[in-house]
Amino acid sequence: MSAADVALVFGTRPEIVKLAGVARLLDSRARIVWTGQHWDANLTTCFFEQYGLPRPRHVLDGVGGESRGRQIGRMVAALSDHFTQQPPSAVVVQGDTNTAAAGALAAHCAGVPVVHVEAGLRSFDNDMPEEANRRLIAPLADLHCAPTPTAAAHLLREGIDAERVLITGNTVVEATLESLPTDVESRALLARHRVVEGAYVLATIHRPENTDDPARLAQLLDQLAAIELPVLMPLHPRTRAAVERHGLRDAAARLRQIDPLDHAAFLGLARHCRLLVSDSGGVQEECTVLKRPLVVVRNSTERPEAVRAGFARLARPGQQLACALREMLSDTTAADRLVHTLSPYGDGSAGAAIVAAIRDRYLGPDPAAAPLPALATTA
Fold first, then answer.
1. Which Gene3D superfamilies match (predicted)?
2. Cβ atoms of 22 and 351 closer than 8 Å
3. 371-375 long-range Cβ contacts below 8 angstroms, 24+ apart
4. Per-residue pLDDT tens digits of the chain, which is 379 residues long
């Protein structure tokens, strides 16, 4: 294996979605490494195919389904061996997954520079495993690709050298725009799921804070079921297992449960819904591109930009959620207001900016690349 390539460490669906454009721009210089953190084919394999990505050059075994500690430990050991035996010019990790944390630590151990895409997000909530992962990666990264000025400001306050921080925007913008189905395909989606444009709610729930607590999950399902509009709910494997484990099958049955969707199908349904309800980080970004309102069902968020811009509202199950659902469903001005609101996550050029920086620092400059955006130091 030539050293003049860059390893992109994938392990989950969001990483595939958000790094696919970077991989395509790097072309033959991209070495895709698959950890298998998400082992369900419905959540992974179809995404590689959808984005036209080649098969991974290196695949880890025995990671999916393990506890967090064992998962990270196995990934670090296997990735360290791989990067030591076949060192790339740099290792790219994305976001705040166990895969990202393990990839960064393994690269650091092997003496390989780390590029962190979507760097600088902070919830300041230590109960979130993702917050620990983000804070673990920060001191290990050689290049921090921050999606927003707020994220960059977090890194600077933590003592990260400004020379290593670039505001690139978020690759979710171009990924969303590229994956949106056509009008014909969207109409077929709505017909298939027996819903009418603007007259249904699309909900996704999968985070442990919502699925591991039976009382909280029951309350959340009850509040979704109380909505007068149809509620489509693609069931994540973790949520499906929690529903069974907590004896909530009857509560979940009041919603329109559907199988997990590929990215294009989810975006097609999200684009035409009345309201999104989710605990997903990616949906908090995608809603700003789709111009749809979102209720974020979580205790905290590392993406306050979507809230500040008026796209999202943070609410816990209970009175907060009931109030948020009632007010956002009754807001007749939301559609007109949001369609004219710019996404805080950029204009769709993040992938190009990230690849330009990678080529310049680790593979040699690309004279055709666009200039990098200047660093802003204020939130």
1. Glycogen Phosphorylase B
2. yes
3. 372/166, 372/168, 373/166, 373/167, 373/168, 373/169, 374/167, 375/152, 375/162, 375/165, 375/166, 375/167
4. 344 899 999 999 899 999 999 999 999 999 999 998 876 655 456 667 778 888 889 989 878 777 889 999 999 999 999 999 999 999 999 999 999 999 999 999 999 999 999 999 999 999 999 999 999 999 999 999 999 999 999 999 999 999 999 999 999 999 999 999 999 999 999 999 999 999 999 999 999 999 999 999 999 999 999 999 999 999 988 899 999 999 999 999 999 999 888 889 999 999 999 999 999 999 999 999 999 999 999 999 999 999 999 999 999 999 999 999 999 999 999 989 999 999 999 999 999 999 999 999 999 755 454 454 444 443 3
User: Which is nearest to 16 in space by CA: 42, 2, 5?
Assistant: 42
Q: In 10 A of CB 212, how many CB atoms?
A: 13
In the chain, the domains with their CATH numbers are 6-171+348-363 (3.40.50.2000), 181-339 (3.40.50.2000)
Known active-site residue 206 = yes
Structure tokens at 246: 């907590």
- Asked if 12 and 96 count as a contact pair (C-beta separation under 8 A), the reply is no
Number of Cα atoms under 13 Å in the Cβ half of residue 369: 22
Catalytic residue among 82, 116, 154, 206: 206
Q: Is residue 83 classed exposed, middle or buried when 0-12, 13-18 and 19+ CB atoms within 10 A define those classes?
A: buried
The residue ranges of DSSP E strands in the chain, in sequence order, are: 6-10, 30-34, 58-59, 90-94, 114-117, 143-146, 165-167, 201-204, 231-234, 256-258, 275-278, 294-297, 312-315
Measured CA to CA, the distance from residue 324 to residue 330 in angstroms comes to 10
